[in-house]
Structures are given as structure tokens and as C-alpha cells.
Amino acid sequence: MLDESELPRQWYNIQADMINKPLPLLNPATREPLKAEDLAHIFAAECAKQELDQEHAWIDIPEEVLERYKYYRSTPLVRAYALEKALGTPAHIYFKNESVNPLGSHKINSALPQCYYCKQEGTTNVTTETGAGQWGAALSYAAKAFGLECAVYQVKISMQQKPYRSSIMRTFGATVTGSPSMSTRAGKDIITRDPLHPGSLGTAISEAVELATTTPNCKYTLGSVMSHVSLHQTIIGLEAEKQMEKAGEYPDTIIACFGGGSNFGGLAFPFMRHTLLEGKKIDFIAAEPSSCPKLTHGKFEYDFGDEAGYTPLLPMYTLGHEFKPANIHAGGLRYHGAGTIVSQLLKDGYMRAVDIPQTESFAAGLLFARTESIIPAPESCHAIAATIREAKKCIETGEEKVILFNLSGHGLIDMTAYDSYLNGDLTDPEFKG
Amino acid sequence: MLDESELPRQWYNIQADMINKPLPLLNPATREPLKAEDLAHIFAAECAKQELDQEHAWIDIPEEVLERYKYYRSTPLVRAYALEKALGTPAHIYFKNESVNPLGSHKINSALPQCYYCKQEGTTNVTTETGAGQWGAALSYAAKAFGLECAVYQVKISMQQKPYRSSIMRTFGATVTGSPSMSTRAGKDIITRDPLHPGSLGTAISEAVELATTTPNCKYTLGSVMSHVSLHQTIIGLEAEKQMEKAGEYPDTIIACFGGGSNFGGLAFPFMRHTLLEGKKIDFIAAEPSSCPKLTHGKFEYDFGDEAGYTPLLPMYTLGHEFKPANIHAGGLRYHGAGTIVSQLLKDGYMRAVDIPQTESFAAGLLFARTESIIPAPESCHAIAATIREAKKCIETGEEKVILFNLSGHGLIDMTAYDSYLNGDLTDPEFKG
Question: What is the architecture of the domain spanning A73-104+228-422?
Fold first, then answer.
């Protein structure tokens, strides 16, 4: 743990240090690069500015956000001795525990600044999409903290799988609607095409963006994918860097699960800075689900961020914006595309990706729970599974590698998934590309 | 927060300082006072010894338990500024946040030493009862931590209301059975008498005690009521005392919810020491549910701790061991009796009790969630409701009272209860004495 005086006071903007910058976002009609003003129609102006900032490597965290961070930060950096022992690996396994806050995941790190900027700019209402509900819960709390009204579109299948998360959002005063819904034009169109559509982050984004653009004084917020979200999440890696230093070690391998890229970038970017600036060698691994493998099986191309095609065109690894992901329990990883920064970094060889079958992820999560006492979120189980793969390689090679992974959230609201695994009902849906 | 070096290394045994000691436990057949040897048939020998210890005020915490405490302790002491502001009270409200650990409640504080002592004494299996499941989850984890097998009897109605908690226990490797069940003589008898019996802590204790006494190398453990459990929980109050000193304040009022007394005693006893030894005036308030009000509506008499009459006779405030509590969501407070220490202290006027209707408890919990960002367990909501009552009195009198309450656990696994409250479906079951 860090002392209050050691908490980072700036976020790290990796765009400033990248050799090949991410390609610009394009206006789908004109295919012209977007300016911050264009994005400010849907996002808070400050977020729009951060999104396109390729100059400033360090961005000040506002005092009001720092105050809120202090409620739960720093988060612990933990050496997973019991897991190491159970595996019999010579590797040193560390994890950054982002599950230690009242909302239970890293998502709050970006929900707070996004709501703060909205409030500062005179916005009264925020809206968003959510999958498993980690982001929706975080935003509901942050909106309440800064006195904003909040409306959340939650992926329908996730809402059914994890009913408690919508209850949490309602407890914090948010309105929650299952997506696709009949409350928007986009939702109606999707339901008309496919009445049994289980929903996806793509459908929920379409609905939230539509609500934001058709409601006065309402802004859209996003829990991942966008560069400003990863920026806010760098608080994770910046803390972890200081904590690893205190532990007297430096990671050889850095692993995080991958949905849109915010928890991955949040942990990895501050370390990758040393790769970019000093040539430091670190093995960065993004762990994605086998059934939604945009990094390992997607194409790098311009695509929409949502199902209906309301967003700008984003240069990214994508499975196509109409890709319908299988109903895996890791709702937060059921997204067709990757953020523009990560996409460029993967293309340029600074990182790699692995895909993890659902049952392997839960086997890893169960072992972690029984050794380290924390029940991990189904998303985080993918990072644990990838970590176990690497730690097992160290048994063969005898290397004492230092592996750092991000425990992005706990799974207390995801117990039906564990039930299903313990009962032997869980399957590994195939990827249909 | 406290530094690691400031963590208490001893528990406080209030029995040593009490003027009127608790009356002895009696053998139901002979009505003779029990000795530690008699209790050691069902409990770990060290726990049995602690149970009857009326001499030593300070008892060393074993190193192995301290090491495990350090995984999550100290827990934060928080000033509830936002709640104060929402109430408009001049009172200073503090809470000790025992929800900050992977199991989500204070129960782990006693689960760890109980399993440690069992392991030390060569026990291989532990068993217990659980209501809402907070205790069962904590014991499942502690058993796994010390390499013991664990079997839990969970109150049937709570198991239905909170299915995730049994999943958590199973995830930690425990066997979970709904009580009353057909797996024990006691359970069969209860079901024969009342096939639709929803279960109670009393029925689950009978079944667990029977399992422990009929299984080789198996000990029974308990999550509340007994004096050694409160002893282990004093880590809460001992930390809080140091933390209040750092905050430069001293509590006028100390509040905790009340099931069997362990979280109440855990917070209150270290402060009550100064009442007993130095005559310090503090208003100690136990908050119990209106539908299970043993302290405000029970009788002080010898009674069994369980439904079937397997336990020793305990001198306590009780509603009768066959009392069938209403199906309120605060499963941990659905117990017919109070621990022997608290019963004596209440009788002697050192503390008082209030009873809280279910809907008042959830209204308080919702306000707390929306101001302080933590969704409290239904049990803890009772402490919050009692705190709000006291804080509102301060508005009238203008007193800047310092109120300290125990947030014994979070309510993330109890979201069906909040749903029910938000939907307007929650009722206030009457007490039928």
C-alpha cells in the first residue's frame, strides 16, 4: 500500500510517447478526421480533448477527483504466495487488487473523472452502456457522488445472468434498461431485425448514444475502448510501479484481461512508457475470451464502435460491429473491437494477445479463490488463466519470472457463473468468425 | 487506518473486568456448571478454555492468526460526512468498516482463530450453522486457509433468499446443506413436526452440533453468541479505539446491530472497559429487528442455544429456543437468544437495546448507500437506522455527539432484499411473542 502522499497526482497519456500515433477517428459521412469539438457533442468537452491529445504525456488529476480516489486508493499490490505454492512455480506472481472498493472493480477510476467533468461543464444527466454491470454500477455511484441523474442501458443477457448488478445501480438511484430495448430508435430497429437478440455492448452503446444526443443537457460516458478512459485507468499502473519498486522487483510479464482495453491499458501503459522511451523489455499480454477474440482473430480496420453505426469510425482490431458474441459470463469482454491505442500497439508488436476458453478461465478463478481468498470476476479470471499459463512455463524453464496481473474486479455478483461451473454446466462456445 | 506496527496483538476479555460475571453454563441433565473439558467435546479445546475464562483480561492472538489478520486489517474508520450532511445533524458520525475484506463481513475475525485452534489440535473437519451466510462463507475460507474440510448447515429460508452465499461457500470448497434437512436426527424430527419449517439459526445449530458429535475428528464452530467469539471480535473495538484517538475524538454513543452479540461485543467491549474500570459514560446501543427482539422483549433465563436442545443451558435474554423468527432479510439477526456476557451487561444496565422495523432498516441502508457509497448488509442496516435515530435527536438538542457504529458487512449478496424494498414489497412482520 502507498501512503496518501505517494498517490499519483497525474495520469499518463501514452499517446504522447508512441512512435506511431493511433490513426485518427473519422466522421463516417465525410471520412474526415474528427476534432475535439465534434466529439464534445456526445462526451464531456474535457474528455473529448483528452481523447485526441497526442502531445501531453502527463495530465493533472483534478483535486475533486483526487479527493474521491482517496476514499479507496491506493489499492493493494499483493504477492500471490499461496497461488505460487499451489502451482509449484518458481515465478513470482503479483496482482494489483482493483476489487477493493465499494463498487468492486476498476471501473470507478474513470467513472469519477467523467462525472466530475460533466458536472463542471453544466451537464445534469449522464447515460451509458454496461455489460456485466461493473461499469454501470460505478457510473451510478459516481453520478450520485457529483449530483447527476444517470440512465444505464445494460446488455439484456447480462442483466438476466447477473440480476444483482441492476439492483445495485437502482440502489444508487440510476434508471436501468435492458438493451436492445423499445425505448430508442436503434433498439427498435435491432429488435425488429432479431426479436431474440441477447444484446451486446454494441447494441447498448447505440441506445445510450441516441439517448445522449436526443436529450437536452445529457452526455454519454463510456467504460472502456476510448483513449480517455484508458488514460484515467493509468492510475492503476502508476501506483503499481511505485509498489513494485517498494517490493524490490520489476515485472517481466504484465497481464490483464481484455474487453475494450481500459484495465489492460491502465496497468500496462505506465510500464510500457519505459519500453517506448528506454527500450525496456516487458512481455505485455492481453487475455481475451476464445469466443470473442478480436485481438487474436480480428482485422485491423476502420469500424463503428456500436451496432447501429452512430459512433465515429475507429481504427481498431475488430470482429465487425455487427458481431454477436456468445453468451459467456464475462459480460465485460463481449465487445467486438479494441481501443485505438492498443490496436496500434498490437500492430506495432509492443504487446501480444492470448485467447482463453471459458472453462479454463473459471478453473483458474476457482484455484485463485481457494488459494488467495478472493473470488475473481469472470473477466479477471481470463487474466488469471493467462498468468497460470505463464507461471507453468516457468516450471519447465526454471525461470523466476516476475509476473504482474490486474485483478480488475471481484465476482461476488457473478456467483451464478461459478455455480454453473461447479455443476459442470459451463461450455466453451466456439468462435464463429 | 493503522500502521501494521499498531495492530493489536491481544484480544480483550471483558469477563475479567465485569463486576457481576456471567452466570455459568449448565449441563441440562444435571444442571451442574460446565467445565472447559465438557465444552471441548464440541469446540476446540482452546476455544472452550477462552469461553469460561473470567480471569485474564488480555489474551494473545496467535502469530499465525495475526499473519492472516494482516491480509485485510486494520479496517478503515470512516467519518460519514455525506450522511451527516444529508441528515443535517450536528452529530459526528463515524463507522468502522468491517465490510472491507474478501468475505465481506466481520465474521472472518473469529473464523480464522477457530480454524487455527482446530488445526493445532489435530482436527480435520469443522462444521457450523449459518443464517444469511456471512459466517458460513468466512468459515469456508478460514477452513481452506488452514487445510480443514468444512460442512455448513445454512438456514433454508436464507439459502433461498441469498443463493449466491451458498455458491461462495461451495467455491471455497465447503459442503452446504439447507436446514432443517433430512441428514440429521434433529433435522428429521423438526421436519416431521413441521414439514414447511423455514429453518432458523436454532435448527441449523442442532444439525451442526449433531454432525460434530457423531463424526470423528470433527469440531463445531460458532459465528456468534458464545463468549470466545466476542473475544475474537474485540479486534474491531481495539482498532477503533486507536483510530478514534487519531481522529481526536471519543464516542459518546456506540451502536451495533444485534444477532447473537459478536459484532456488538467486538466493537463495544474495549470501550466498555473504561466504563467498568474508570466509570466512563458511553451510551451503548444494540439494534435488533422488531420481529426478533430478544433484548427488548425477551426474558432473562436459562435456555438452550438451539432448537433441538443439544447445547448446554445458557443464561440469557431469550424468546425461547423454539421461537420461529419471521422471514426478514437480515438472516444473521434471526436468533432467539443473546450471548451470556451481553445478557448480563444488559441486566446490569451497562447498555440498552432498540428494536428496528425491517422497512426502517432498509430506508436507512438506502440513504447510507447513496451518501457513503457502500451498500450495507441488511443486518448492518439496523445499526445505521439506530444511528440515524440518535443523529436526529441531536438536531433537536443541538448536541455535537460523537456516534460510532459498526458496519459489520456489505450487502452485495443481499440485493434481492433491496430490490424488494425498492419495489415497495417489503413488509414489517409483527413480533408474535
Answer: 3-Layer(aba) Sandwich (3.40)
The alpha-carbon radius of gyration of chain A (Å, integer) is 20
- Provide the residue ranges of all domains of chain B, joining segments of one domain with +: 73-104+228-422
DSSP A316-351: EEES-TT------S-GGG--SB--HHHHHHHHTTS-
Q: Which helix (H) or strand (E) covers residue B68, if one does?
A: helix B63-69
Say if residues B122 and B150 touch (Cβ distance below 8 Å): no
| Best CA proximity match to B426, nearest among B288, B291, B316 | B291
ipTM over 0.90: no
Q: Is B332 helix (H, G, I), strand (E, B) or coil?
A: helix
Residue of A nearest to B2 (CA): A3
Nearest C-alpha of chain B: how many angstroms from A133?
13
Q: Where do we find the cell 499498531?
A: B6
Phi, psi of A365 (to 5 degrees): -60, -40
Tell the burial category of B260 from Cβ atoms under 10 Å away from its Cβ (0-12, 13-18, 19+). Answer: buried
Residues of B with CB below 8 A from A103's CB? 373
Cβ(A402)–Cβ(A333) below 8 Å = no
Instruction: Please give the biggest Cα pair distance in chain B.
Output: 61
- pLDDT tens profile B158-198: 888 888 889 999 999 999 999 999 999 999 999 999 999 99
B62-81 in b/e burial notation, b at 16+ Cβ within 10 A?
Answer: eeebbebbebbbbbbbbebe
| CA pair distance B226, B230, nearest whole angstrom | 7
Residue of A nearest to B142 (CA): A373
Beta strands B402-407 and B253-257, pairing class = parallel
Cβ A415–B167 below 8 Å, yes or no? yes
Inspect the interface and report whether the beta carbons of B104 and A172 lie closer than 8 Å. Answer: no
CB within 8 Å: B375 and A171? yes
The size of chain B, in residues, is: 433
Of A369, A413, A422, the CB nearest to B412: A413
- pLDDT tens digits for A24-72? 999 999 999 999 999 998 999 999 999 999 999 999 999 999 999 988 8
How many residues are there in chain A?
A: 433
pTM, 2 dp: 0.86
CA distance A411 to A430: 24
Q: Which residue shows C-alpha cell 480496420?
A: A301
